[in-house]
Structure formats: structure tokens, C-alpha cells
Amino acid sequence: LCSRLLDVEATDEAERLADELLALARQHLGTQHPSVADALVVLAIVESSRSHFQAAVDLNAQARSMYDEAFGQLNLRSAVAINNQARALVQLKELTRAELQYREALSIRAELQGQEHPETLNVRFNVANMLLRRERYSEALVELQHLIAVKIAAVGSEHPWLSRVFLSEAYALGKLKRLREARISFDKAFKLAEKGGRVSRALMPMILQDEAEILVELGRTSEARRCLTRALKIAEEDHAPQATVVQLQQALAKIKLLSD
User: Fold this and answer.
1) Global pTM value
2) Which of 46, 51, 104, 130 is the least buried, fewest Cβ under 10 Å from its Cβ?
3) Going by C-beta distance under 8 Å and a sequence separation of 6 or more, which residues neighbour residue 213?
4) Band of the pLDDT at 244, cuts 50, 70, 90?
5) Model confidence over 97-110: pLDDT tens digits?
6) What are φ and ψ of residue 73, in 5° steps?
């Protein structure tokens, strides 16, 4: 219910329910029961949605300590808390700590669920994106290409999840000035996003905007302009957040100056 409330941006109601859940768990189960830790994780998610990232870090740390006490350090609930803590640390710009947390969550997932499990791959994707944020593009590319190979071997090349990985791969290739390879990855990301559902489709304006940047570097400003025009149209049709629409409008205006 809290998740559904957050989906519709009813954060005050979500926080009220999360506080109530935590209070009930403590009242009926004691302060150290794993279900109390579950309630702390839910509350941390709510705090993150309100941009209270330090509170989210602290709540996930409390939950992780309780899970470790109950189940030992190698348990999946701790992996969830650690991963969520890393996300909050990213928002606080504590990237070194965030990478360490992601890698710890990855180690737990790989040990308990195997290297090819979807949840393990999700955390590995977080590690790769962390490397991108830290401008370690070659390392990130190795991780991303490993992810692509494993996922394709498991479920084929048409899985919508791959659109995000191809997008990150394209970004890494672009930063490494491997621009023509980057365009190929952008194309793969876009085609998969186009075939996917609502969540995948939401990636399409971002993919086109990033591809436009590569086209500008290749000196193909007219194509870049067409990419951004299409991205803006999709964003407006899908009622994307206003910030996304404004960002695309500004990028298009800049491209028009270059191509005029």
C-alpha cells in the first residue's frame, strides 16, 4: 500500500502508514524482530521519496544490523537493505561508499542466488552505473558487456530489461569516444524500449537525447535535431514530467543554434 501511495506521490499518507507499521511491529513483536527491520526498510523508502536521504541511510543501516543479528550476515534481506542504502548514498554524492555497498549487496546475491539470477544481475547493473558515475568508463563497459552476454544467454536478445543496459553501454562508449559503436548501442536500446511496456517506453526520450549528443560530436547536427524533435514529441505524448520536457526543449534550442 505504501508503494502504491508513493506511485501517486501521496508521500504524507505513505509516511503515516509506514510509521504506523513500524509502531505496530514494535508493539507486538518487540524491538529486534525481523519484521521491525522490514518496517524500517519501508520507512526508508518513504524517506528517500521525500529526499531525506541521510534518514534513509540510517534506517537501512538499522535494518541491516537487525537482519544480520537474526539470520547471519549472508541473507537476502540484508542485501535489500544494503542496496537501498547505496541508492541513498548516491543521492548524497557519497559515491565511494555507495560503490562499496553495491558490491557488498552483489556479493551476497551472487553467493545465495547465483551469478545469473535476475536480482544478482540487477545489482551488478547498479555497480556498473556506479562506475559510470565515477567516470571509470572502461571498467563500466566490461561490466555492462558481461551483463548483456549473460542476459542474452539466459532469455534472448529481446528482453526489455536490456534496453537500460544498452543505454548505459552506449553512454560508456560515447565517453570513450567510440562513437559509432555507441550509436549501435543507442539503436538497440531504443528498439527494445519501443517494444516494451510503459516503463520501457519512458526511456525513449532519454535514449534519443543521449544519441543526439553523440551525433553532435560526429558533426551530424541535422540528425541530432531530428532525434531531439522526436524525443520531445514522445515525452509530450506520454505526459512525461515537466522537468523532462523542459530539458528536451532546451537541448533542442541549443541544437537549432548549432545547425542554423
Assistant:
1) 0.83
2) 51
3) 174, 224
4) confident
5) 999 999 999 999 99
6) -70, -20
